[in-house]
Amino acid sequence: MGSIKKKIGIAVSAVGLCIVAATFVSVVSANSTDKVEIRLAHNQAAGSEIADSIAKFSEFVAEDDSMNLDVNIYASGVLGSEKEEIEMVQAGILDMAKVSSNTLGQFEDRYSIFAVPYLFVDQDHYYTAMEKSQAVKDLFMSTEDQGYIAIGYYANGARNFYLKEDVVCDNPSVLKGKKIRSMPSSTSMEMIQAMGGSPVPMAGSETYTALQQGIVDGAENTELALTVDAHEDLVSSYTYTEHQYSPDIYIISTKKWNSLTKEQQDYLVECLEKTNENFKKLYNGMMDEAIEEAEEHGVHVYRDIDKSAFIEAVQPIHEEFCGKGKDYQALYDDIQSYAE
């Protein structure tokens, strides 16, 4: 009980009790209903294409009135950072959150597998493993005693390197001596180091200023970072290294989950699957549009590179993950079994 209170204190103090309470009350007042309310938070900018695609979840849930469910979404990180959102879900203050697998790795170490570079050989392997792997499903349910479970994933795309210098990034020597923005994840930092660079961990929102001021020489992310975050104004090259497919994960408070009927639970999972399928249909077109815009801004795009030097360089990270124990090895092996 003491630890729960501590988590509540941390989460609420981080975002401000008054802000959280006022936000929730205003929504409840505006949507006076007998339906079961589900509050979902995420950190994508409201009005962005990704935020709009997440909003489809609320629309899909509303299609069947008999399920008596109403999803209200809080975008743009208005309730705090992803770490704070997870803590609020654990404590039952917030019902759901869409968070990165990297952030979840701070709470359950096996989620760090999704930061292992070149875990997936391509997009098809990524989609198939995430949807069919029993080991992934078991991981999703393994945190029930921590106050939350995962009930779906969001198909973020491949992460690639982009630099202020116009050079094709096709082997570790290119990144040698370069400061590269890293996600604040030990595996991500280890990856950049193994691939030749010097990792500089920071929040994604800080990357633009860091590039602008020369704090970093480059970063790695999906194509949308170039356009949505305007990094296209500051970098000269983007190379399709495709070194990571890091999914975002939909988590739900076990308190909320256990309060739902089996039919409602199944329906939520079904609606998340529809949301993901909708996004997957849009994704490649969104990335093509983003890279076209970046090229118009003068970014030189390098496609179809030989990745073998990078793949070889990061093999120790694969070995390190599997060496953590049999559960880690089993998760890794099951994901690998879906590679064609």
Task: Please specify the SSE layout and strand pairing.
Layout: H1 2-15, H2 17-30, E1 36-41, H3 49-62, E2 69-74, H4 82-91, E3 96-100, H5 101-104, H6 123-132, H7 134-141, E4 148-154, E5 158-163, H8 172-175, E6 179-182, H9 186-194, E7 198-201, H10 207-212, E8 218-221, H11 224-227, E9 237-245, E10 248-253, H12 254-259, H13 262-296, E11 300-302, H14 308-313, H15 315-322, H16 326-336
Parallel strand pairs: 1-2, 1-3, 6-7, 9-11
Antiparallel strand pairs: 3-10, 4-10, 5-8, 5-9
Helix pairs in contact: 1-4, 3-13, 7-16
What this model shows, in words?
Helices cover 48% and strands 18% of the residues. The radius of gyration is 20 Å and the shape is globular. It has 16 helices and eleven strands. By secondary structure, it is of the alpha/beta class. Helix 3 packs antiparallel against helix 13. A five-stranded mixed beta sheet has the order 2-1-3-10-4, with helices on both faces. Strands 8-5-9-11 form a four-stranded mixed beta sheet, with helices on one face.
Assembly state (oligomeric): single chain
How are helices and strands ordered from N to C? HHEHEHEHHHEEHEHEHEHEEHHEHHH
Radius of gyration: 20 Å
Question: What fraction strand?
Answer: 15-25%
Number of helices: 16
Number of strands: 11
The chain-level mean pLDDT equals 91
The structure class reads alpha/beta
Provide a compact summary of the structure.
This protein is α/β, with parallel strands linked by helices and 340 residues long. It has helices at 2-15, 17-30, 49-62, 82-91, 101-104, 123-132, 134-141, 172-175, 186-194, 207-212, 224-227, 254-259, 262-296, 308-313, 315-322, 326-336; strands at 36-41, 69-74, 96-100, 148-154, 158-163, 179-182, 198-201, 218-221, 237-245, 248-253, 300-302. Helix 3 (49-62) links the parallel strand 1 (36-41) and strand 2 (69-74).
